[in-house]
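Hey, resending since the last one bounced:
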Amino acid sequence: MKDLVRWGPSFGYFPEPEKSWLVCDPKMEDYARHIFGREGLAIQMTHGMRYLGGHIGTESAKAAWLRPKIKQWAEAVGVLEKNLHSLPAGGVLRAVGQPATGMATCVPHSAGRWSVHGAD
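The structure tokens again:
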């Protein structure tokens, strides 16, 4: 990070360590704090966070991130089910499929692991 701060501006890159996040395994957090602290760098740490529409981090952090999304999707499916008779079939398929497809695309290994029942 110190090299980025030192050399980055000559390439048009202006890093700000205090705005940087390190996503690490909980077992490595103390060691990482020690290393970055020794270098005098204030970096925020987490076990998982949203990144480019998806998620990076531990499985438990990913599950916590996905849970409200799945619940919201399950609720939307419930609303559609109640109003199914008044909606065109194509619209129902697009409305229901879009959030799940996006989630499966952005979050590796999420397709097929969750069900509507898993949102409870």
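Residues 113-120 have pLDDT under 50 and may be disordered.

Sorry for the duplicate.
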